[in-house]
Amino acid sequence: MLSASEYEAREKKFLQSYAVKASETKGRIFEEEPPSFRSHFQRDRDRIIHCEAFRRLEYKTQVFANDEGDHYRTRLTHTLEVAQISRTIARTLGLNEDLAEAIALAHDLGHTPFGHRGEETLDALMKSHGGYEHNHQSYRIITKLERRYPEFDGLNLCYEVREGVAKHSGEYNKPNLSDFSDDGYPNLEAQVVDCADQIAYMNHDLDDGLQSQKISFDQLEEVSLWKDNFNAVKEKYPNAKPKLLKYQTIRRLITLLILDLQEEALRRIHEYKIKTVNDVRERGKNCIRFSPKQEKRNTELLQFLYAHFYRHPDIEKMAKRSDAVISGLYEVYLNNIELLPKSLCEKIKAEGKRERSVCDYIAGMTDRYALLQYKELIGVTL
């Protein structure tokens, strides 16, 4: 059987010098016995997969609410796609796949029910109490809110995983968390996850948008990235049905984006003379990015998705339902804390922080549980 120390020795042998090695982790908040048959980052990955917040992602909105159909992405399937793409990119760049996977699996734990609209509603409700931001909530989940171990709250993950979650999709050197405020840019594995997230959602939102007929092939003719690749697929498979053309175009787009990212990353690593993890932190610029040309085309595609899909009248209708549910639940719980779980109610009485506790409780709900609670407490089915 391969031991943890033997596995970590392989990392040192085969990974690039600027990759994070599990044996060189900055450690955990609470000291623990080292794992015997897994690396530190493999242990972190497993803890994330087994936590309650991860399981709840299955019934949380990506774009479509959970009750809209069985084949649309959920927050869980999105997370799994990000993890798969992250591992692929990390492997080809000689980075630590396990670290990238762990960060990817945790990056959306803090999402509310009903997707980004739910987050916007909670943020507005919490404006006078610190606001709400899903990346910070993900960090609170892995460091405080998950309770599975007698010795500590949270999952007690390694520094590098916590850092990747805290600095995901934001100003890397200003994550607004004191643990990381002076640490510069995160490891390359975290930067990989940030880009893999974009690759995943751009492509699966195209897939779901076409599947739902909220957007059409004709509309996508105005997007050069889609048009060029769709035409190439049609030329190769002239007799293919539209559904097959869709799948093959998206497959081609994912490959194209990964290859562009890899090539640009290697170019930047060479240009910036990156040799160590500290070089990455001190550089002051992302090393993992798309090429300028590809970023421009990505922006065009994202602008299309915002205009024609995310702001589609049917999606907006779902968003208004979300506003009503989350606002209604917040008001009811805030004024009637006895309706909350007994342990949370007792905590509020002992420690205060009523607004944040109510916010945490609602943020952790799945779409269907939020709708059920709204029906039970307010008497309206939405």
Protein described:
This protein is mostly helical and 382 residues long. It has 2 domains: 4-119 and 132-311, Hypothetical protein af1432, CATH 1.10.3210; 314-382, no CATH class. The protein contains 18 helices and no strands. The chain is globular and about 60 Å long.
Highlighted features:
382 residues, mainly alpha, Hypothetical protein af1432, 2 domains
The largest β sheet comes out as: none
Order of helices and strands: HHHHHHHHHHHHHHHHHH
Number of structurally distinct domains? 2
Distance between the termini: 54 Å
How many DSSP E strands?
0
Decide which structural class fits the backbone.
mainly alpha
What's the number of helices? 18
CATH topology of the largest domain: Hypothetical protein af1432
What oligomeric state do these chains adopt? single chain
Which percent band covers the strand fraction?
under 5%
User: CATH-wise, what's the superfamily of the largest domain?
Assistant: Hypothetical protein af1432
Explain the layout of strands and helices.
Elements: H1 4-14, H2 40-50, H3 52-56, H4 75-92, H5 97-106, H6 115-125, H7 134-145, H8 159-166, H9 188-211, H10 217-220, H11 224-236, H12 242-271, H13 277-283, H14 292-310, H15 313-335, H16 342-351, H17 354-363, H18 367-378
Helix pairs in contact: 2-5, 4-5, 4-9, 5-8, 5-9, 6-15, 8-9, 9-12, 9-14, 11-12, 15-17, 15-18
